[in-house]
């Protein structure tokens, strides 16, 4: 390799490698894709990047991503304003909306409390959530953080903060994933599934 | 999902999904990465894309990628000009250069003959290769196209074209990959490995 250096190509691969889930090989593949784009296709790609980056920001109420002042859920007149579902990430909102089951509001924390990674409560959108608790319509907060150590800790932290205000705090059910196989379920999940069993 | 649409975000995910090896989930992940970049990081990314796209083109001799008139290999004074190694893709040149074994020249076809995908000889950098055959120093052409049906067909097509000119045409050896396991080698590879066996 000593003899072969094309600086702009190396710089391109370097930039692409920084992206999550993109290793060196994938970055090379993407680089060749980009080099083979027509001039107008490249323009479309870079201007979409710039436009999205410029226009998208946090919703002033729920901290989800939006290009408006309020996100579509917060702006909607048909959503149930008595429930807020607290999630870690905007992608979780997309996942829940896809189900078409939930009609309440959301709150996006943009992460979890994780002392090991140096993420404390102040680094998350928690103060924005606290502000919303004074709404007299609000009856329930559903903790829908991920079932990981950090997700659990964050749910616990928030429920201790919110419960004293007389608002009901719930957590998503744990159990066997539908379509899953008992044989492959881990012990903690099985224990939780037993604990959470219901009359049929 | 009916209620949740953020147009610039959807457009961004759409653009990213067009890239090779990037599915919908990866595109979403990349989109959030891009939205979280600082303004100057985004500028660095887009300008690297634009710079690479603008500056990088084919070497006027071997069709490899370069930002100069000649690629580093063609411009080098220490390379053996009696051998040309014909490859499908610029990445193959990188792979061979990494080995530090080969000191000859390269020729990049930018694809293989593939009638099913509508790629004929005229769509590849074959005329550029033919031009190089009149060099009196040239003694050997090594066909290093991939061991696929298209790679083989392209190697055959080129060797029929070149052999009548009195230039030696060789093909990379087939066999068991070093560190591989006989048990997992396919039949064709095993047959080729037997055929290509050598005195030890």
- Which stretches of chain A are poorly predicted, pLDDT < 50 over at least 5 residues? none
The CATH architecture category of the largest domain in chain A equals 3-Layer(aba) Sandwich
Helix content of chain A: 40-55%
What would the average pLDDT of chain A be, to the nearest integer?
90
CATH top-level class of the largest domain in chain A: Alpha Beta
Largest sheet of chain A: 4 strands, parallel
The CATH topology of the largest domain in chain A, please?
A: Dna Topoisomerase Vi A Subunit, Chain: A, domain 2
Structural class of chain A: alpha/beta
Give an account of the 3D structure.
2 copies of one chain form a homodimer. With 200 residues, chain A is an alpha/beta fold. Chain A has 2 domains: 7-55, RecR Domain 1 (Helicase, Ruva Protein, domain 3), CATH 1.10.8.420; 58-199, Dna Topoisomerase Vi A Subunit, Chain: A, domain 2 (3-Layer(aba) Sandwich), CATH 3.40.1360. Chain A has 8 helices and 6 strands, in the order αααββαβαβαβαβα. In chain A, strands 4-3-5-6 form a 4-stranded parallel beta sheet. In chain A, strands 1-2 form a two-stranded antiparallel sheet.
Write the layout of secondary structure elements.
The structure is a homodimer of 200-residue chains.
Chain A: H1 7-17, H2 24-35, H3 39-55, E1 57-58, E2 65-66, H4 72-75, E3 83-87, H5 90-99, E4 105-108, H6 126-132, E5 140-143, H7 149-162, E6 168-171, H8 187-195
Parallel strand pairs in A: 3-4, 3-5, 5-6
Antiparallel strand pairs in A: 1-2
Helix pairs in contact in A: 1-2
């Amino acid at each position: 390799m000593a003899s072969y250096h094309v600086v702009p190509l190396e710089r391109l691969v370097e930039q692409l490698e920084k992206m999550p889930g993109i290793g060196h090989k994938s970055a090379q593949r993407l680089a060749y894709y980009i080099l083979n784009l027509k001039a107008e296709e490249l323009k479309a790609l870079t201007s979409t990047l710039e436009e999205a980056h410029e226009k998208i920001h946090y919703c002033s109420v729920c901290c989800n991503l939006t290009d408006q002042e309020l996100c579509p859920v917060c702006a909607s007149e048909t959503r149930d304003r008595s429930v807020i579902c607290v999630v870690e990430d905007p992608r979780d909102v997309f996942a829940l909306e896809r189900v078409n089951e939930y009609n309440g509001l959301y709150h996006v924390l943009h992460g979890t409390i994780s002392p090991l990674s140096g993420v404390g409560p102040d680094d998350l959108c928690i103060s924005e959530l606290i502000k919303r608790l004074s709404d007299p319509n609000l009856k329930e907060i559903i903790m829908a953080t991920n079932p990981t150590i950090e997700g659990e800790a964050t749910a616990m932290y928030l429920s201790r903060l919110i419960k004293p205000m007389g608002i009901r705090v719930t957590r998503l059910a744990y159990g066997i994933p539908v379509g899953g196989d008992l044989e492959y379920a881990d012990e903690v999940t099985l224990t939780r599934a037993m604990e959470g069993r219901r009359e049929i």
